[in-house]
Design brief:
The complex is a heterodimer of chains A (467) and B (212).
Chain A lengths: L5 H7 L2 E4 L5 E4 L2 E4 L5 H9 L10 E4 L16 H17 L2 E3 L9 H8 L7 E4 L13 E4 L2 H10 L1 E4 L3 E8 L8 H12 L7 E6 L1 H4 L3 H9 L8 E4 L3 H7 L8 H11 L12 E6 L6 E3 L7 E3 L13 H14 L14 E4 L7 H11 L10 E4 L4 H9 L2 H7 L3 E2 L20 E4 L14 E4 L2 H10 L9
Parallel strand pairs in A: 3-4, 3-6, 4-5, 6-7, 9-10, 9-12, 10-11, 15-16, 15-18, 16-17, 18-19
Antiparallel strand pairs in A: 1-2, 2-8, 13-14
Helix pairs in contact in A: 2-5, 6-8, 12-14, 12-15
Chain B lengths: L5 E9 L6 H4 L19 H4 L31 E4 L11 H9 L3 E4 L4 H9 L3 E4 L2 H13 L4 E5 L4 E3 L5 E3 L4 H8 L4 H6 L2 H14 L6
Parallel strand pairs in B: 1-2, 2-3, 3-4
Antiparallel strand pairs in B: 1-5, 5-6, 6-7
Classes of the chains: A alpha/beta (467), B alpha/beta (212).
The structure holds iron/sulfur cluster (SF4).
């Protein structure tokens, strides 16, 4: 057999049937569901009198609409409440495993899948959510799907798919102090643009990637979609296997050795060919801060807001000008002079234990600046929250003036009560800085957890390497 | 999706051109978490005298007696006839969902908006294009004869009136196949159910932990 990329191996091992035009019926091992994109799919099943093909493939959790403050009173907004209640009812009716809002295992769908071992190397993983790319960190083929496809997967355990092209993003060298997976992700998007990965499945490789923890790899793959690629992935190695071991859904003793032996084959073969290769020097990456309304509008912390006047492409120039107006920024302003109003540490990009530890290490023994209206930490799951509390991280954050919240998507997309007011500026560890993403008129700057914590302490962006 | 073979149904005439999807189902109803239940709000702005919002008890709302679907003789209609460019406007699949939920299985018009036309097939509704003269003749027969029913035969691609007029219509062969067999995407994929099961069997051997 000729040398194969990781993507080709994952694809080939899931082909059920191929049509003459190469449309492929691809088998789906794991299907994750949340409350926003599933109701019509369940309704579709009901109307067609269909049952889920394989119940054990599915795991559901409510995350987008859940409140991050006291949950004893339930959800105040009736529309949000209805969506969550609907998920509960659908899961009960069809027999799908669900972590309810009161369950300590509840959390953001892309945090709990890996945390539970529901995401495993070699799997195909889908969810009605674009950030499903996160799960590719495990050497899995993972991507988001639409509501009709949610129904299709529920009913058939398959998806109709065409093969993607392959891109290798090679990051060699080692990251400097204070530089994280989030900075790699933003630097990659800054380099290739938000459409750079369109039509590709990206494999992240190289020394800097191998040195990342699983949390870091998830952060990176999470943002593959922001680079335009539906799927991002990292080859399996000891780091992967160590993370997976002993989790509730992971293979048990009798199957473990067999699983590990197979998982060790999940890497791109020597000599395998990618359709495209992008290289970055990891040692040259600095902490990144977005300045505009697209993740590709990003500069290093020691840089300045770019000047549209120096952009020769008129379409890009127009986009930059509109972004600066929306963001309330002047060209050529040093990034470190931009003051923030709110700080959000959370989201499926950066709400895992390692992210919270990193932010806490910056906040420890310090206090948020007087101009900060709100600094909040929203753990990615109840279990992350619990672990952080065991480690005393909540105390560090509280002492520093941060709010310590219940798990969920929260101010990543402001579907619950957590949101920016018009004109407010936020240092956020989330993944999208689109207009209005964190609330109408809100201004989002994407950064790493360390950089967000440092901005909260200083009241403006600062270089965490010198903090 | 239900099979569509022969439909013998009561006809309701909606004598308007350019019926848009906002008229078929107004935007406030798109907040729903459902794909069904839109029937009571089909043509909401024409059908009721007050302003409709989701969650209202539609049975107690004041009906517009002039609107055709409110007339006793058209209760239980399954076939809608209309004029040019039916279903124009947005791509909302809520429009065919609402028609289907109300009870319509076929819509006959001289022309349809493209997206709406596609959406109908996905939901088991047959949109039939007849020439303007043919549609005009149907309007006349329906008006003249209370309880007028039409027989729509998808296999032979014909519409027959009680008076014995027969009209032929075109339909794309793949779509016809899907409708005749009640197949949507999912239905088609399920035709490979044996292959899916065989695949699962193989994987159960090689990677049993996936199926835990
Ligand atoms: S945290 Fe944000 S990006 Fe992630 S699933 Fe929730 S809303 Fe989507």
């Amino acid at each position: 057999m000729s040398a194969q990329t990781l993507y080709e191996k994952l694809w080939q091992s899931h082909v059920v049937h191929t049509e003459p035009d190469d449309t492929t019926l691809l088998y789906i091992d794991r299907h994750l569901l949340h409350e926003v994109t599933s109701p019509q799919a369940f309704e579709g099943l009901r109307l067609a009198d269909r049952k889920p093909w394989r119940l054990s493939a599915n795991l559901a959790v409510a995350d987008h609409n859940v409140p991050t403050t006291d949950r004893k009173d339930g959800i105040a907004d009736p529309v949000s409440r209805l969506q969550v209640d609907t998920l509960d009812q659908n899961c009960a009716e069809f027999g799908i495993a669900e972590f309810k809002m009161s369950d300590v295992r509840q959390g953001i769908v892309h945090v709990i899948g890996p945390e539970q071992g529901a995401t495993l190397p070699g799997m195909t993983v889908v969810c009605g959510d674009s950030h499903t790319s996160t799960h590719g960190a495990f050497g899995a083929l993972a991507h988001g799907i639409g509501t009709s496809e949610v129904e299709h997967v529920l009913a058939t355990q398959c998806l109709l798919q065409k093969k993607s092209r392959t891109m290798q993003v090679l990051v060699d060298g080692s990251l400097g102090k204070g530089v994280t997976a989030k900075d790699i992700a933003l630097a990659v998007i800054g380099k290739i643009g938000t459409a750079g990965g369109t039509g590709y499945a990206i494999e992240f490789a190289g020394e800097a990637i191998r040195a990342l923890s699983m949390e870091g790899r998830m952060t990176l793959c999470n943002m593959a979609i922001e680079a335009g690629a539906r799927a991002g992935m990292v080859a399996v190695d000891e780091t992967t296997i160590d993370y997976v071991k002993g989790r509730p859904f992971s293979p048990k003793a009798g199957q473990w050795d067999q699983a590990v032996a197979y998982w060790r084959t999940l890497h791109s073969d020597e000599g395998s060919k990618f359709d495209c290769v992008v290289e970055l020097d990891g040692s040259a990456i600095k902490p990144q801060v977005t300045w505009g309304t697209s993740p590709e509008m990003v500069v290093a912390i020691d840089g300045c807001v770019p000047d549209p006047a120096r952009e020769t492409d008129p379409v890009k120039r127009g986009g930059m000008e509109r972004a600066l107006i929306y963001m309330g920024l002047q060209a050529n302003t040093p990034i470190s002079q931009i003051a923030v109003d709110k700080v959000f540490i959370g989201s499926c990009t950066n709400s895992r234990i390692e992210d919270l530890r990193a932010a806490a290490s910056v906040a420890k023994g310090r206090h948020i600046a007087s101009n900060i209206k709100l600094a909040m930490v929203v753990p990615g799951s109840g279990l992350v929250k619990h672990q952080a509390e065991q480690e005393g991280l909540d105390q560090i954050f509280r002492a520093a003036g941060f709010e310590w919240r219940e798990p969920g998507c929260s101010m990543c997309l402001a579907m619950n009560a957590d949101r920016l007011e018009p004109g407010e500026r936020c240092a956020s560890t989330s993944n999208r800085n689109f207009e209005g993403r964190q609330g109408p008129g809100g201004r989002t700057h994407l950064v790493s957890p360390e950089m967000a914590a440092a901005a909260a302490i200083a009241g403006h962006f600062v270089d965490v390497r010198e903090f | 999706m239900d099979k569509f073979t022969i439909l013998d149904g009561l006809v309701a005439p909606l004598d308007r051109a350019n019926v848009d999807t906002d008229a078929i189902i107004p935007k406030q109803f798109l907040k729903s978490i459902k794909r069904s239940g839109f029937g009571p709000n089909l043509f909401d702005e024409w059908r009721y005298l007050d302003h409709g919002e989701p969650g209202m008890d539609n049975s107690s709302r004041p009906l517009n007696p002039d609107f055709v679907l409110n007339q006793p003789r058209y209760q239980g209609a399954q076939i809608l006839i209309a004029r040019e460019n039916f279903g124009c406007g947005s791509s909302r699949e809520h429009a065919p969902w609402a028609l289907l939920d109300y009870g319509f299985r076929a819509v006959i018009a001289p022309s349809f908006a493209d997206i709406f036309f596609n959406n109908c097939f996905k939901n088991g509704i047959l949109p039939i294009v007849l020439d303007a003269d043919g549609v005009d003749q149907l309007f006349k027969e329906v008006a003249a004869q209370p309880g007028c029913r039409l027989s729509v035969d998808l296999d032979s691609q014909t519409v027959t009136t009680p008076g014995g007029h027969m009209f032929s219509f075109d339909v794309d062969s793949f779509r016809k196949y899907c409708l005749l067999n009640g197949l949507d995407d999912i239905g088609l994929s399920l035709q490979h159910a044996d292959k899916i099961r065989a695949y699962e069997e193989r994987r159960r051997q090689s990677e049993p932990w996936v199926f835990n």
